[in-house]
């Protein structure tokens, strides 16, 4: 995979100069730029790690829902993990087959369940049950549709939160999390599924958290999941076990493991535990797209006050929310490097009126005479960037630029300010 690199001081992604993209009047900044080929290669590499074993790589669409990206992953044989009816519809229209979709989420509406149950000839691959209370709701919708809905039980394996090397907001598989069925409720859940003729339990799953940078916690959770699958498979016709997503990427502090390492370790354990005939599912989001996207921003101005140095850029927390939401740190670098410029530590902040609109302190070139820092790139912004974006403060949604084969293959223009103004003026008008 061609990673982000520098050529003659200028950042290059997917063989395209990011200085040219940032200065192209068709896009402007802030702009997300994605290397679609590298994303497809992630999909191929992860699928190859399963060797010939039955599997499904269900891409977690919420990480980055852009059509060209979901399509590219579908084209290399990935399925989709969706968390809303809209994501389900998007995945299907991007070429994912209904069979290859799993639907997660703790509060699926009846309309969303109907959509999942009614997709294709037999509904989607599986609806992931996240609570006992959800089971009769799914059963009733399936029964009303005259179909048998395939479901999987997302168990909460009770992995100790402290043992997971991730931020507490993105840890999901511990026993206080809102996600999944806790082990204490599993017997009741199984009993309910067993007496529901409109449900077929085809899988069991778990998802421990996100940005895991070691395989241990993931494999420990898979061990508990597999033990559970072994226990119930005589009673239920399981076809798969789903170990979830959460594979970490290198945000600058390192990530010694690749997504394929998680898969190989989990598959080996699965075979060792006598479940080798079941398909192994995983649900990666971040690792498929995170490193293959950058957010380009222009420097609006610098500020020197009370001994602090600030760099104000035209991208804010509405464009990339992770720092404000999870105290995440993204590397920020100049797009074009001026080797002669001196470097200082700057607080990099956006224009949004919130103190949390702060991307942290970064070493950046100083301005001197006519040599000014014009644009920066916020690295590893391909996951949970645009998809979490908002128009808070009347800001535009950022542009998106898609690269493939060494050139720009498509772009989403920035949403015009006038669109937001019209939308807000229309607020409340519908029933008058
Ligand atoms: C968000 C999510 C994922 C993807 O997590 P990543 O950390 O992006 O890999 C997988 N499964 C479920 C159920 C999710 O909600």
Based on the model shown, name its key terms.
432 residues, alpha/beta, Lyase, Ornithine Decarboxylase, Chain A, domain 1, TIM Barrel, 2 domains, nine-stranded mixed β-sheet, eight-stranded parallel β-barrel, 12 helices, 21 strands, binds pyridoxal-5'-phosphate
Describe this structure in words.
With 432 residues, the protein is α/β, with parallel strands linked by helices. The protein has two domains: 5-34 and 290-424, Lyase, Ornithine Decarboxylase, Chain A, domain 1 (Beta Barrel); 105-282, Alanine racemase (TIM Barrel, Alpha-Beta Barrel). Helix content is 27%, strand content 25%. It has helices at 18-22, 36-48, 67-75, 85-93, 110-118, 134-145, 186-194, 216-232, 259-272, 286-289, 322-326, 417-426; strands at 5-7, 10-13, 16-17, 31-35, 55-60, 79-82, 101-103, 126-129, 149-156, 181-182, 199-205, 240-242, 279-282, 293-305, 308-313, 332-334, 343-349, 358-365, 375-378, 399-404, 407-412. Strands 4, 14, 15, 16, 17, 18, 19, 20 and 21 form a nine-stranded mixed sheet that branches. Strands 5-6-7-8-9-11-12-13 form an eight-stranded parallel beta barrel, surrounded by eight helices. α4 runs parallel beside α5, α5 (110-118) packs across α6 and α8 runs parallel beside α9. The protein is globular and about 75 Å long. Pyridoxal-5'-phosphate (PLP) binds next to α10.
């Amino acid at each position: 995979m061609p990673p982000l690199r520098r050529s003659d001081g200028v950042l290059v992604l997917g063989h395209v100069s990011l200085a040219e993209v940032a200065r192209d009047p068709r896009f402007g900044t802030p702009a997300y730029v994605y290397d679609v080929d590298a994303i497809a290669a992630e999909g191929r590499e992860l699928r190859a790690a399963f060797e010939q074993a039955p599997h499904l790589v269900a891409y977690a669409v919420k990480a980055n829902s852009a059509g060209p990206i979901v399509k590219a992953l579908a084209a290399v044989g990935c399925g989709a993990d969706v968390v809303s009816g809209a994501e389900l519809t998007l995945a299907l229209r991007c070429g994912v087959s209904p069979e290859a979709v799993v639907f997660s989420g703790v509060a699926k509406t009846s309309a969303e369940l109907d959509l999942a149950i009614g997709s294709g000839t037999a509904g989607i691959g599986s609806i992931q049950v996240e609570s006992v209370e959800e089971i009769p709701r799914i059963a009733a919708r399936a029964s009303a549709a005259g179909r048998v809905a395939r479901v999987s039980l997302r168990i909460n394996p009770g992995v100790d939160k402290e043992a997971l090397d991730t931020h507490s907001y993105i840890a999901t598989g511990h026993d206080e999390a809102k996600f999944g069925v806790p082990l204490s409720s599993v017997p009741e859940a199984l009993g309910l599924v067993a007496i529901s003729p409109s449900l077929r339990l085809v899988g069991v799953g778990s998802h421990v958290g996100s940005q895991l940078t070691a395989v241990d916690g993931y494999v420990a959770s898979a061990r508990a999941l597999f033990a559970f699958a072994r226990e119930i498979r005589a009673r239920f016709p399981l076809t798969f076990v789903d170990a979830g997503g959460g594979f970490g990427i290198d945000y600058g502090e390192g990530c010694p493991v690749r997504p394929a390492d998680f898969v190989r370790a989990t598959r080996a354990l699965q075979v060792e535990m006598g479940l080798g005939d079941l398909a192994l599912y995983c649900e990666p989001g971040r690792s498929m797209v995170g490193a293959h996207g950058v957010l380009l921003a222009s420097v609006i101005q610098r500020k020197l006050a009370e001994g602090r140095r600030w760099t104000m850029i035209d991208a804010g927390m509405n464009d990339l929310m992770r720092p404000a939401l999870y105290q995440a740190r993204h590397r920020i670098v100049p797009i074009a490097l001026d080797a002669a410029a001196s470097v200082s530590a700057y607080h990099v902040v956006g224009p949004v009126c919130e103190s949390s609109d702060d991307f942290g302190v970064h070493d950046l070139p100083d301005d001197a005479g006519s040599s000014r820092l014009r644009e920066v790139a916020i690295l590893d912004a391909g996951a949970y960037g645009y998809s979490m974006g908002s128009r808070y403060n009347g800001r535009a949604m950022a542009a998106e630029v898609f690269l493939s084969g060494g050139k720009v293959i498509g772009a989403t223009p920035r949403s015009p300010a006038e669109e937001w103004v019209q939308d807000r003026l229309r607020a409340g008008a519908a029933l008058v």
